[in-house]
From TrEMBL, chain A:
It is found in: Endomembrane system. Keywords: Membrane, Protein transport, Transport. This is MHD domain-containing protein. Its main location: membrane. It comes from Nepenthes gracilis (Slender pitcher plant). GO terms for biological process: intracellular protein transport; vesicle-mediated transport. It comes from the Eukaryota. Pfam families: Adap_comp_sub (PF00928), Clat_adaptor_s (PF01217). One of its GO terms (cellular component) is clathrin adaptor complex. Residues 183-450 form the MHD domain. InterPro entries: Adaptor_comp_med_subunit, AP2_Mu_C_sf, AP_mu_sigma_su, Clathrin_mu, Longin-like_dom_sf, MHD. Belongs to the adaptor complexes medium subunit family.
Automatic annotation (TrEMBL), chain B:
This is Beta-adaptin-like protein. One of its GO terms (cellular component) is clathrin adaptor complex. PANTHER family: ADAPTOR COMPLEX SUBUNIT BETA FAMILY MEMBER (PTHR11134). Belongs to the adaptor complexes large subunit family. Subunit of clathrin-associated adaptor protein complex that plays a role in protein sorting in the late-Golgi/trans-Golgi network (TGN) and/or endosomes. The AP complexes mediate both the recruitment of clathrin to membranes and the recognition of sorting signals within the cytosolic tails of transmembrane cargo molecules. One of its GO terms (molecular function) is clathrin binding. Keywords: Membrane, Protein transport, Transport. Residues 1-23, 645-664 are annotated as: Disordered. GO terms for biological process: intracellular protein transport; vesicle-mediated transport.
Length: 451, 832
């Protein structure tokens, strides 16, 4: 059970504050904010999501720059509270369409109304957008989406393929469209975050894919849905091998190490034909989370080199090659590399004719940054940088720099080859044919090349 | 110190009005609207109410609007009503008199025909938190609990718990707990059931201390019918209510093995839930149920690994941290079971340092012969990291792995390479590690000293590192040509050094160096002693004076005191006692795991209630029937330690590894177990203060005159729960090994044989188990005079004819006497 819930802005202002049990003294928001803000001075980087001050336990999650916080004096399950905070944010997003400081401020009465039903006397009552609909009466005040910063994976599609309605997924689950009618549609996103570590000689040390099949339904009347995955998907390697052990050697099969499912998912026919049956509740939710350590082809190869070039000088060469098909384009690519601490100046040399590329040397933390707007499949890009040092390096300059890390987003590409083969919606009438959007996206989680 | 953030210091922004003027404006406007029935009034009211609530949110006191808000509340607009309720429940506590004004309309709304309004009104009514209004609550709550709408009953159930917090007596007198119990067992709406359970847990656990009936009711929540009632419909509950139920089930003690498997089979699919809280709650059930079944317990670890790893990698950073904390706990308990999963514990460059720290500890724990090379290679990458705190942790991790491995050859090389990196913090950390390593593996001194000797003491600034370097200079003075001269220059700069730790080490090192190379060191030693005696730090002064007098008295005695021959350290003391670790394990899926402390260390007493009541209770409910069924109750202490013993030889069972037993060392057969001696005058590893008292008591034992023989109560009773609790609480006061006579061993074909024999000596068995050659027993006995208890863990190995016992006692001064009678009783086993 929790005592208080509040949302603070980046500056520490209360946007929403709700006290459920009255057993935490006043001023908890200030105490919390000061602790989080000045955590660094205690010699650590970032405040952990859970800490205790004077017998009060504070939990927080950061979402779109806002702090969602809960306090309690009792020894609760941290997973439960942190999960709850995420879920509250998701419910609010379902209602407001967009989660941002602005939309929260404009709709705080609606948010209070939600909070009143979500938690009573510190006990969670429901976090289902569906159930809450019948208790909540405020209409969301829709904020302009255009100027808002990108939020989560949904917004990625705005720059991506054009055929997708960019704002669709930022619309409220409850609000009606200007026309008065709701558009019948459903979104299924396969989002994969990949982590790869390359050794200095370029071979893969570790690799993992963490994926989610996320669904957001705007269908009225809760029709049943069947979601079919590739038939060669199999689950269980390592820990669960005792019931269906499948050797990963069989090429072509997608072997997931493990996965978990949303409550609404029925797995009755999963073992037979790899279909998931569910009646999707309103709002956004993960249908399935999965994890895979089976080998896969990494989308980018990184080669990085740092070499001394005379006294007080060195040269860095970073090369990235996109190893995916040419009909796929990666966007918002950022490459960075820590340089020796005694680096004073860096001059960059891009390949001739480079468009949409930026370079920077961050003096404060001695870091090289290289940004690329997009990379087309099969392309290769190179960056050369000349470094000037303030002192001689103690011999091995490669020990003082690196590793190179990279972030990117690749729409309509997935590394695991897990696919949604079809998405079947229970038919109500002949003319009923809702829009279905199945989208793939791959993002870098930790993509690192050692030098 | 961080500058305090004062909200008032900020420039007032439009959304942050200073208060006073706006509030009185608002008051005026509200008053004008109060009586109005003109169309559009509700819309204007909405705007004003919104304003009031937004002021309230940012911390402006709007309590002065109370009467106006209440006057405006006569409305059928539900949004307005809700805002008004929110306002009222926030301020009623501070305006108890005005709160009375709201009672009327709230009570009226409690009878509205719309269940939504009834529920809302009842919820607000119960949230007023005004003691003198409780009489108005009883009626609406009573009808709320009987309401036809599940929504209203759900609100009412929580309402009862709110009432209990305002006035416990009113709540009990109105017989609400009984009504809740009825609803809990009969209501078709699962959220009503869940709320009844939450409310009853709160009420009964707080009443239990004063009322026997409440404590019986509280225990009854864990009875088989109630538990099965919940389990059978677990999937109908919301995911949050499932957590509540699972938390309860984790405290249930099944009567036999098949029940355990039934429950686990039923809950198996909960491990695949996307909500991490449900998964962790399920895991807790699995772990608790199988505590006494070593093999199954181990299978549970295998089974839960994958779901845990999936949760760690899929949720938000915060969620994954919470799960990782639990994984960390399991890895620490049974590292062998995770040794092939080490790659999952590699750090990602973009992870926050609180995550990296946990991962580094796990990597350290799972390192074994097969994966050490790869783990150490990975850790060396982090050592060059730009993130300095993590680089330091990584170096420490490498050192720890070296200390726990048998083959440290390659690791020592890696450590020595760190020194070549010539980064201050890397050098500092490495020096500290090399010192510890040398204490455990003196045979490496040659290689290390060669490298350490090359380090310029000027590059070492951190006190810990400096102290380590100085220790090595003293300890290996004969191998390091420059030792006396380096020490001399350090002593010359005595004044510039501010750390007492460094000064203390300097004194000792100068002494040791002097014993080996007197002519070269004499001058430096004199300077050190003079500087030390003049030092303002008490310990430094005392140590210098002590050394000075020792030397005056007799140099060879001084050498025996300051530099006695040392045995290598076999095991470094664990920072956490196993009792504390067990407590944290018992509190799985709670903050204790994240903070790595049992809850009593960070939760106020009054808030510990709901969680803690379970521990004792869970076992009590097992009660009488278990006391005589001997084989079942092996739950006690039978955890991963045993699990570990079967898989690894890491824990040398003979070597004392907790402070409690370290002091009982004189009882060991000196030749069989090497002692963990830390170099006394130097040892920075002082024992944790909390145990100092026990240790002192243990030490004082031989001094007291031999106690009279002990009379034991032949009919003593102790239930397993109480035993388990006591076992956790008490320190080990004695532990010893002794031979068992071969005829006894011959008679020990089944564990029960000995149980009956010991019973004849008034030593009762509470649990036993094992197969030849290893039998394990838990005994207890009670002194006739003062009813104080003795608890014994006894392991008998029939192939080596040895017994190993650990005694814990209420009255520690009598444990020696008790152990004598225990031994004599055991020695008669098997004799005709």
């Amino acid at each position: 059970m929790i005592s208080q819930f509040f949302v603070l802005s980046q500056r520490g202002d209360n946007i929403v504050f709700r006290d459920y049990r009255g057993d935490v003294p006043k001023g908890s928001t200030e105490i919390f904010f000061r602790k989080v803000k000045f955590w660094k001075e205690d010699g650590e980087e970032e405040a952990p999501p859970v800490f205790n001050i004077d017998g009060v336990n504070y939990f927080h999650v950061k979402i779109v720059g806002l702090l969602f916080v809960a306090t309690t004096r009792v020894n609760v399950s941290p997973s439960l509270v942190l999960e709850l905070l995420q879920r509250i944010a998701r419910v609010i997003k379902d209602y407001l369409g967009i989660l941002s400081e602005d939309s929260l401020r404009k709709n705080f009465v609606l948010v209070y109304e939600l909070l009143d039903e979500v938690i009573d006397f510190g006990y969670v009552q429901t976090t289902s957008t569906e159930v809450l609909k019948s208790y909540v009466f405020n209409e969301p005040i829709v904020t302009g989406a255009a100027h808002l910063p990108a939020l989560g994976p949904a917004s990625l599609f705005m720059q991506g393929t054009k055929r997708m309605p960019g704002t669709a997924i930022t619309k409220s689950v409850v609000a009606n469209e200007p026309g008065g009618r709701k558009r019948e549609e459903i979104f299924v996103d396969i989002i994969e975050k990949i982590s790869v570590t390359f050794s200095s000689s370029g071979y893969i040390l570790t690799s993992e894919i963490d994926g989610t099949i996320q669904m957001k339904s705007y269908l009225t009347g809760n029709p049943e849905i069947r979601l079919a995955l590739n038939e060669d998907v199999c689950i269980g390697r390592g820990g669960r091998s005792f019931y269906d052990y499948i050797s990963s050697a069989g090429s072509g099969t997608v072997v997931l190490d493990d996965c978990n499912f949303h409550e609404s998912v029925h797995l009755d026919s999963f073992d037979m034909d790899r279909t998931l049956t569910l009646v999707p509740p309103d709002g956004e939710f993960p249908v399935m989370n999965y994890r895979m350590t089976q080998e896969f082809k990494p989308p980018f190869r990184i080669t990085a080199l740092i070499e001394e070039a005379g006294p007080l000088r060195a040269e860095v060469i970073i090369k990235i090659r996109a190893e995916f098909p040419s009909n796929v384009t990666a966007n918002t690519i950022a490459v960075q590399m820590p340089l020796p601490t005694y680096t004073t100046r860096v001059s960059f040399e891009l390949e001739p004719g480079a468009v949409g590329q930026t370079t920077d040397f961050k003096e404060a933390n001695k870091r090289l940054e290289w940004g690329l707007k997009k990379i087309v499949g099969g392309a290769e890009h190179t960056l050369r940088a000349k470094l000037t040092f303030s002192q001689e390096s103690h011999g091995n300059v490669t020990k003082e720099a690196g590793p190179v890390s990279m972030t990117f987003t690749i729409p309509m590409y997935n590394a695991s080859r897990l696919q949604v083969k079809y998405l079947q919606i229970e038919k109500r009438s002949k003319s009923y044919n809702p829009y279905r959007w199945v989208r793939y996206i791959t993002q870098a989680n930790s993509y690192v090349a050692r030098i | 110190m961080a500058p305090p953030v004062h909200q008032s210091q900020r420039s007032p922004s439009p959304s942050r009005p200073s208060g006073k003027g706006e509030v009185s404006d608002l008051k005026l406007q509200l008053r004008q609207l109060a009586g109005s029935r003109a169309p559009g009034t509700d819309d204007s009211k909405r705007e004003l109410f919104k304003k009031a609530i937004s002021y309230m949110t940012i911390g402006i006191d709007v309590s002065s609007l109370f009467s106006e808000m209440v006057m405006c509340s006569a409305t059928s607009d539900i949004v307005l009503k809700k805002m008004c309720y929110l306002y009222v429940s926030n301020y009623a506590k501070y305006n108890p008199d005005l709160a009375l004004l709201t009672i009327n309309f709230l009570q009226k709304d409690c009878k509205d025909e719309d269940p939504m309004i009834r529920g809302l009104a009842l919820r607000s009514l119960c949230s007023l938190r005004v003691a003198n209004l409780v009489e108005y609550l009883v009626g609406p709550l009573g009808s709320g609990l009987r309401d036809g709408s599940g929504y209203v009953r759900m609100v009412a159930a929580i309402g009862v718990s709110k009432l209990y917090h305002i006035s416990a007596a009113t709540c009990i007198d109105a017989d609400f707990p009984a009504m809740l119990k009825h609803l809990m067992l009969n209501d078709p709406d699962t959220q009503v059931v869940a709320n009844c359970l939450s409310a009853l847990q709160e009420i009964w656990s707080s009443e239990a201390s004063t009322s026997e009936e409440a404590s019986r009711e509280r225990d009854a929540l864990l009875s088989k019918p109630v538990i099965y009632h919940f389990l059978n419909r677990i999937k109908e509950f919301s995911e949050w209510a499932q957590c509540l139920v699972l938390e309860l089930v984790a405290k249930y003690i099944p009567s036999d093995g098949s029940e355990i498997f039934d429950i686990m089979n039923l809950l198996e699919d909960r491990l695949q839930h996307a909500n991490g809280a449900v998964v962790l709650a399920t895991i807790k059930v699995f772990l608790q149920l199988t505590l006494s079944m070593t093999d199954v317990h181990q299978q549970v670890y295998e089974r839960i690994k994958a779901p845990l790893l999936t949760l760690v990698s899929t949720g938000s950073q915060e969620q994954s941290y919470a799960v990782l904390g639990h994984l960390h706990l399991l890895v620490m308990r049974a590292p062998m079971l995770f040794s092939s999963d080490y790659k999952h514990f590699y750090c990602h460059y973009n992870e926050p340092s609180y995550v990296k720290k946990l991962k580094l500890e796990m990597l350290t724990a799972v390192a074994n012969e097969n994966n050490t090379y790869e783990i150490v290679t990975e850790l060396c990458e982090y050592a060059a990291n730009v993130d300095i705190p993590i680089a330091r942790e990584s170096i420490r991790a490498v050192g720890k792995i070296a200390l726990q491995q048998y083959d440290v050859n390659a690791i020592v090389d890696r450590l020595l390479q760190f020194l070549e990196m010539e980064k201050d913090y890397v050098t500092a950390e490495t020096l500290v590690l090399i010192k510890d390593l040398l204490r455990k593996y003196p045979q490496w001194s040659h290689d290390c000293i060669a490298v350490v000797g090359n380090i310029s003491s000027k590059n070492v600034q951190e006190p810990k590192a400096k102290a380590a370097l100085i220790w090595m200079l003293g300890e290996y003075a004969q191998d390091m040509a420059d030792a006396p001269y380096i020490l001399e220059s350090l002593i010359e700069n005595w004044e510039e050094e501010h750390s007492a730790e460094v000064h203390l080490h300097l004194l000792t090192a100068a002494m040791k160096c002097f014993f080996r190379r007197p002519p070269e060191t004499q001058k430096a030693l004199g300077a050190a002693l003079a500087a030390g005696i003049a030092d303002i730090h008490q310990d430094v002064h005392d140590r210098a004076l002590f050394y000075y007098r020792l030397l005056q008295y007799n140099v060879s005695v001084a050498e025996r005191v300051v530099n006695p021959p040392k045995q290598a350290v076999s095991v470094f003391a664990d920072t956490q006692s196993s009792e504390i670790k067990d407590r944290i394990f018992d509190e799985f899926n709670s903050l204790s795991v994240i903070f790595q402390k049992p809850s009593y260390m960070f939760i106020d007493k009054e808030h510990r209630g709901t969680f803690e009541f379970s521990d004792e209770l869970g076992n009590l409910s097992l009660g009488t029937e278990a006391a005589d069924s001997v084989v079942l109750v092996q739950r006690v202490e039978e955890n991963d330690e045993d699990l570990l013993l079967s898989t690894s030889e890491k824990e040398e069972s003979g070597a004392p590894n907790s402070n409690g037993s370290a002091y009982s060392a004189p009882l060991y057969d000196g030749s069989s177990a090497p002692l963990a001696i830390s170099n006394a005058p130097l040892g920075p590893h002082s024992p944790p203060p909390s145990f100092a008292i026990d240790d002192l008591l243990g030490l004082s034992l031989p001094a007291v005159p031999p106690p009279p023989p002990i009379n034991l109560n032949a009919k003593a009773v102790l239930d397993p729960g109480a035993f388990q609790q006591k076992w956790r609480q008490l320190p080990v006061s004695l532990s010893l090994d002794f031979p068992v006579n071969p005829r006894g061993v011959a008679a020990l074909t089944t564990p029960q044989a000995l149980v009956r024999h010991m019973q004849g000596h008034s030593i009762h068995c509470i649990a036993s188990g094992g197969q030849a050659p290893n039998f394990k027993y838990f005994f207890f006995a009670q002194k006739t005079e003062d009813a104080s208890l003795f608890l014994v863990e006894c392991v008998i190995n029939t192939s080596s004819c040895k017994a190993q016992i650990k005694v814990k006692a209420d009255d520690q001064s009598t444990s020696q006497a008790f152990s004598d009678s225990f031994q004599s009783a055991l020695s008669q086993f098997g004799l005709p």
